[in-house]
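hey
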């Protein structure tokens, strides 16, 4: 079963007028991981798609998505799949790939239908593409790692870069995930913006009674969305990116836009936050 929801882009001035329910309806993506289903959210932010597939023991095939306007979803798109569940397989382009927990599969443009199998819980991101690069299965040990922050500022973390220029080639999709060290809960503080690229996050590995406060908005007009395990959020290019949790968590970040330069960001000084 395939379900697709469309999210239209919204500007910062309009966002100012939204209440809590309004913010959540525009930016929060809930209920992605549904047993026996593929659920996608098609956004008008750089045409990024975020979604999930949970085969739960039976094959799920992602093929035509009407919102893309092509015969199959990957006719003019590339895709990255992150397995946040148990072992499973993903088939595309005539090949089958075995994904363990935390593994990432890059699927290039022109790969045809994508089949999800096994006990995996697959987080899906997709962005428009202009050429086909080789498919690649990237395991955690093969990712580029950046260790940042400190325990004194509660933001000691390891950034694992998978679909990234220093690991492999892609068109515009950049993806990885960030893992926090014991006692650290703050991500990317001081905050930053990158108006050249949108970003989407998926928070997981959270205990049922913990929450993440995802911060967004213009630097002088900050807002927040309270999120629980296995929920995603769309962060517009004009918005700050940062968050804090009440306990440990991991989050997948995916970007699309004008460039694939991970370091292309504009830092926001603490005194400019409101």
């Amino acid at each position: 079963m395939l379900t697709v929801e469309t999210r239209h882009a919204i500007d910062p001035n309009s966002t100012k007028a939204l209440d809590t329910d309004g913010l959540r309806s525009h930016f929060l993506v809930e209920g992605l991981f549904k047993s026996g289903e593929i659920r996608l959210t098609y956004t008008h932010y750089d045409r990024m798609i975020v979604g999930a597939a949970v085969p739960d023991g039976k094959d799920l095939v992602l093929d035509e998505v009407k919102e893309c306007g092509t015969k199959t979803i990957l006719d003019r798109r590339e895709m990255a799949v992150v397995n946040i569940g148990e072992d499973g397989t993903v088939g595309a382009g005539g090949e089958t790939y075995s994904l363990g927990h935390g593994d990432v599969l890059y699927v290039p443009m022109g790969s045809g239908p994508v089949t999800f199998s096994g006990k995996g819980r697959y987080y899906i991101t997709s962005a428009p593409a202009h050429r086909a690069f080789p498919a690649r299965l990237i395991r955690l040990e093969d990712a580029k790692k950046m260790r940042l922050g400190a325990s004194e500022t509660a933001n000691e973390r390891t950034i694992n870069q998978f679909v990234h220029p220093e690991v492999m080639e892609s068109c515009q999709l950049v993806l990885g995930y960030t893992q926090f060290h014991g006692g650290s809960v703050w991500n990317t503080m001081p905050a930053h913006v990158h108006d050249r690229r949108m970003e989407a996050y998926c928070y997981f590995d959270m205990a049922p009674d913990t929450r993440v406060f995802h911060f967004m908005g213009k630097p002088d007009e900050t807002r927040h969305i309270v999120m629980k395990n296995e929920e995603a959020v769309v962060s517009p290019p004009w918005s700050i990116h940062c968050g804090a949790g009440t306990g440990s968590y991991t989050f997948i970040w995916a970007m699309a836009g004008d460039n694939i330069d991970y370091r292309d960001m504009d830092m926001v000084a603490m005194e400019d936050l409101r």
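The CA atoms of residues 136 and 199 lie 22 Å apart. The longest helix spans residues 20-27.
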